[in-house]
Amino acid sequence: MSLRYSPNGYRVVTGSYDQTIRIWDAESGAVVGEPLMGHNGAVESVAYSPDGQHIISGSHDCTIRIWDAETGATVGNPLEGHTLPVQSVAYSPDGWRIISGSVDCTVRIWDARTGVGYPLNRHIGPVLSVFYSPDGQHIISRSGDSTIKTWDPRHRYSGDHRRRNTHNVKSVAYSPDGQRMISRTDDNTIRIWDAETGAAVGNPLKGYTGPVLSVAYSPDGQRIISGSADRTIRIWDAETGAAVGNSLQGHTGPVLSVAYSPDGQRIISGSADRTIRIWDAETGAAVGEPLEGHAYTVRSAAYSPDGQHIVSGSHDKTVHVWDTFQPLSIQPPSCNLTRAGFCARPGRDGWVRDPEECLLYWVPQDCRSGLHSPALLTIPLTSPHRSVSLDFDDIALGTSWTHIFRVAPS
User: Which phi and psi angles does 398 have, rounded to 5°?
Assistant: First the structure.
């Protein structure tokens, strides 16, 4: 299964071995519309365009398809040219190009508007993943031939740098500034590369007793996290390669996915033990209890762009959306705030509505993540008060709040 968030974080798209693509509401977890159907083979990779208006999918039927993200309709004809299954697809940062990697050992670049494409032929093994550098100046491809290649998209048939390891390269990630790349290999190590020259930076990062299964940079590029088959997570200094603190332990199965929150304060990990765990990125301490609900291995986990939710995909053929808010260890009062006797949380626009969609009250942006229930507004831990009760005895419902609004004296 492949899954990606939309750029605005409102939707999640997934591709499945049942040959379909599905779109999900990231807030509620509900499926949006009907499955996108058209492929005649498993959907191995999906991605949103940078503007969120289109979705692309790569399939075992050797084609790439473009979809309208709003209506689910196909856009144009399938992109044909690969002769074996498509393993990976991605958009360029400006949305003008699509790249794909295939088992046929080629990388292809496509014009996103016309569908015209051409191949890059330098790998001698299946191309397993492709992506653009953050500045869009280079394309990176990872292959089963144990190489990572960097391509200048302006030169059709020439890769400008090649990197070869004696052990099979499993995955690659760019640093946020695009100056470095990290790769994991099956020799239990992580390697750092100069993205411009292709030279190895420092020595391999060692410390695991099993294969490294996932790697990621922190948002500021100062840290690297990795998960291993030895059931641990490690944090590394991205500049020196030194291990930071002790390994994070708690999973009882291999760690298949790791990621930082957008603010860099949390780390999430997904495991074969069927759980997702949240960790404090500074201390390495576990945050709350493991997130349980999947019936089989958690293959991937990621934060929404706003950091308010976690999405996870599993071999149990489900996608779960989790609220990242961790309530304090106090019990909120029972919900008795509205005339209809219902509980609600603010919508994306900040308004809380009753069942008839009448506006009740508006919550400022910086307070929405703390609204554990309509009865309790949680204040940041730096505040002298841990929580406050909301008194609705004299509430002005809906737009009538404007009648009592007063401008503070200057």
Answer: 60, -145
Residues 188-236 have pLDDT tens digits of 889 888 887 778 888 889 888 888 899 999 999 999 999 999 999 999 9
Domains, the chain? 2-323 (2.130.10.10), 327-410 (no CATH)
* Residue 229: strand, helix, or coil: coil
The model's pLDDT over 275-298, given as tens digits with 9 standing for 90+, comes to: 999 999 999 999 988 999 899 999
The structure tokens listed for 260 are 């930082």
Please list, in sequence order, all residues whose beta carbon lies within 8 angstroms of the beta carbon of residue 387, skipping any fewer than 6 positions away: 328, 330, 376, 377, 378, 379
Rounded to an integer, what distance in angstroms lies between the CA atom of residue 229 and that of residue 258?
13
Q: Which residues contact 378 (CB under 8 A, 6 or more apart)?
A: 327, 328, 370, 371, 372, 386, 387
d(CA 369, CA 375): 14
Q: Are 107 and 119 in contact (CB under 8 A)?
A: yes
Instruction: Report the distance separating Cα 52 and Cα 220, nearest Å.
Output: 24
d(CA 106, CA 226) in angstroms, rounded, equals: 29
Closest CA to 9 of 225, 261, 257: 261
pTM attached to this predicted model:
0.68
Do 172 and 216 form a contact (C-beta atoms < 8 A)?
Answer: no
